[in-house]
Amino acid sequence: MLQTMLSQEVMTKAAQRLMKLLPYKKHSDVIKRAWQLYRTGHVYNVTVENDVLKGKVTDRGHTYEPSFRLKQAAGSSCSCTTVGLCPHNVALFLYAYNQIDVVGNLIRQWKEPTAKQKHARQKHAKQKHAKQNNIQVSQQPAEQREKDMPPNGNIIEAWWDSFEKAYRRIPLYNITEEEQMRRLVHFFFEMFERPTAKKPFLDHLYYVHASLFTFMKMTRIPQQPWSYSAMMQERHVNQIVQSVQQAIKDLAKKPRTKLHEQLIYASIPYARNILSGELTYFTQILDVYKTIWNNLFTDPSYREEECNWAIKKLNEKETVEQKIPFIAAASYVSFLLENDHRAYQLIEPFPYLATEHIIDFMHTSFAKKQIQRGAEWFHRLEKNMESYLHSLHMTDRDWFVRTVLSAHSQYSIATKSDETERYEQLLQKLLPYSFYMYIDYLFDEQKWKKLTELYMLEKANVDMIPPYHLKSVEQADRSLALPLYHQTIMYYIEQKNRSAYEQAIKHLRKLRAHYRALKQMPRWEAYIIKLAEQTKRLRAFQDLLRKGKFI
């Protein structure tokens, strides 16, 4: 896939070279044309090889094949025969740049650096976008928008009405789900200027609502079956999540008046909208929900009201899938209210949700220096881990094991306890999915008997065991290796073919050497006689025993 073949460093340096070759002030026509071609989906079939981008660009009814040299942009070419860099070269680069960063950020960086010029250009760009697409979104300061409202009007409702009207004017028909998301991120959302720290509270609140609206619309677009497009959908959603979370955190830093507090409270129903998104984006939805309730809606009365609302909603739903978002919401807000009993009761029957929530609650408690509280959350996970493990899909059990063991590590650090015995008990209970981690633990702790017993339990032959493990066991206590060789020899004999028999003979020689070193040759002789009797019908193996002078 393209994004896995592009180096962040190479793309960043290429962008810097391109901006020097084409200063925005002198080449704005080329850059704007390239930006338009990229945004409207005229770039496709893009590949990269030896730091050279190649692809196709349709422009005014013609198809061109530009190539862009990432390490020597001036040497780029295009079938349009333009001398020097053309809009098709630049559009091709913008398409590739989108794989590592937001193109809008690059365009803004390309323009003049001074704050006043930057502000003027952003305003002009928004007006141009709105004019080109017949979209009208008020760009007045939030205070002015409030003054323009009727005395009893709901300013937030008016904002969402304006967002909806603007959204309806975006051409989203007869295009893929991934392209719908691309337009929402790179066209619709970029019309809203992110306020600076000096901007007033209402400008920040307006931007939060614009980002929530965009996020809500995106998480209602179904994700396609796993493919490149599905991966890009996930990428677009993750991109907007970061914007929403940052907007919320910026707003939370602003001082509030009584009016502002009223508007914060009035924002709660709009924040709830995100819980109705597609479950395929549940992780992102929950991340945004947690951020807004952790940073913005901090009043305990708001949180108690939200918890009651979420519990009421989950009781109204019929299926588990419908209930899950509200269970997660009610549990998280209960945790914020320090009602851990209710938070746990809500999630305890749902392994996936419970695992992620409990880990989050544990980490948060430890971060707040609430050590006992964090320890109790780990104990809840420990109590349920075996039932949770076997309730999960097979492909997720390794993830669960790693999660539990990592949680124990965090628990040990926070509580300053060295509970190696408890860690080993966890490893035992999580078998067979903890096998490799348990093996490493036993080797590090030099518990050779348990190490060999675990290999025997997993029916491992000596050829499957790391040589340094086997050598360490043999050096520590040669007798511990004997059962492993017995098991290995029988494994190869049961294959019933010449090459397997030869492997068995090789290990018989090693086994005989161990018995001799242990001065237990009578045991060896009894073993080889019995083995020869058991395999008397296997002529090829019997021939090898005679050639090896075992019988």
Automatic annotation (TrEMBL):
Region listing for Disordered, in residue ranges: 114-151
Protein keywords: Metal-binding, Zinc, Zinc-finger
Gene Ontology MF term list: zinc ion binding
Biased composition (Basic residues): 116-131
Domain of life, per lineage: Bacteria
InterPro entries for the chain: Znf_SWIM
The keyword Zinc-finger is annotated on this UniProt entry: yes
Positions of the SWIM-type domain: 64-97
Biased composition (Polar residues): 133-142
PROSITE patterns for this protein: ZF_SWIM
Designated name of the protein: SWIM-type domain-containing protein
Organism annotation: Anoxybacillus thermarum
Taxonomic lineage from the root: Bacteria, Bacillati, Bacillota, Bacilli, Bacillales
